[in-house]
Design goal:
The protein is an alpha/beta fold and 250 residues long. It has one domain: Alpha-Beta Barrel (TIM Barrel), CATH 3.20.20. The protein has eight helices and twelve strands. A hairpin with a 3-residue loop joins strand 10 (210-211) and strand 11.
Length: 250
């Protein structure tokens, strides 16, 4: 029997970021994180209950007792797949930082992946944890934290380099960086140099930072300039704002 996990919320929505933007997914938001990014808009603290939608896409929630058993989650997924056949592309493991729970996820993913592909959203700082589960993951959406926007203290380039090296061999690897008005060319060049040294074909997504009120916190002129800087170094650079925020979706 797999160990239970503390889960913040379970819901059905449109993926608003990165490679699978526009795809509908079942989101499983795990608790806890090893970083404290200044733009983070999610509550990943351990709580007494897990919020779970009563019906997929309804935004009506019920409380599940913590920690959540894998059988509770797979029963819910099975029900949603029957209710909305063909609607969901994959299950997105998000957080928080899912890889903090890699030991338990090795068992959970074996169960979940028989139903839908697995999309891992990660801050890209725990390469050893990724090594334990990467064979059970179909898509890896890796953040690279820029000092100008994340405010995480010491730069994380070395950890990001090790993580991207570990992720190689997975066909669904992509990288997202949140850019803002204070992001400069040097940061984007550092991102591009890191990617080029490992796998230049990896898609890079520049995501404009979302500020309170749901607006974009970087002028379009600067955003286009940063895209041009990156595109001169990498073959696949895309700009996508947080689509779920624009749609008013979870």
């Amino acid at each position: 029997m797999s160990e239970p996990l503390f889960v913040s919320e379970i819901f059905s929505s449109i993926q608003g970021e990165g490679l699978l933007a526009g795809r509908r997914q079942i989101f499983v938001r795990l608790t806890e994180c090893n970083l404290d990014c200044c733009y983070c808009d999610t509550d990943f603290a351990i709580s007494e209950f897990c919020r779970s939608e009563t019906t997929p896409g309804s935004s009506v929630f019920m409380n599940l007792p913590q920690p959540v058993q894998i059988r509770t989650l797979t029963t819910l997924i099975d029900d949603w797949l029957v209710r909305l056949p063909g609607a969901h592309h994959s299950v997105s493991l998000t957080g928080g930082e899912p890889l903090l729970h890699a030991d338990v996820l090795t068992e959970w993913l074996a169960e979940i992946r028989t139903r839908l592909p697995i999309h891992l959203e990660t801050n890209g700082t725990l390469p050893a944890a990724l090594a334990r589960i990467k064979q059970q993951v179909d898509f890896i959406s890796m953040d690279m934290k820029l000092p100008s926007t994340a405010g995480c203290g010491e730069p994380l380039w070395d950890l990001h380099r090790l993580f991207l090296q570990e992720a190689q061999g997975n066909a669904g690897v992509s990288i997202k960086v949140v850019v803002g008005d204070t992001t400069d060319e040097a940061e984007i060049t550092a991102v591009c140099d890191l990617i080029s040294a490992i796998e230049p074909a990896t898609p890079l997504f520049l995501q404009p930072v979302t500020v309170p009120g749901g607006t974009v916190g970087i002028p379009a002129v600067k955003l286009l300039h940063l895209q041009a800087v990156a595109s001169a170094r990498l073959p696949d650079v895309r700009v996508i704002p947080q689509m779920h925020v624009l749609l008013g979706a979870l």
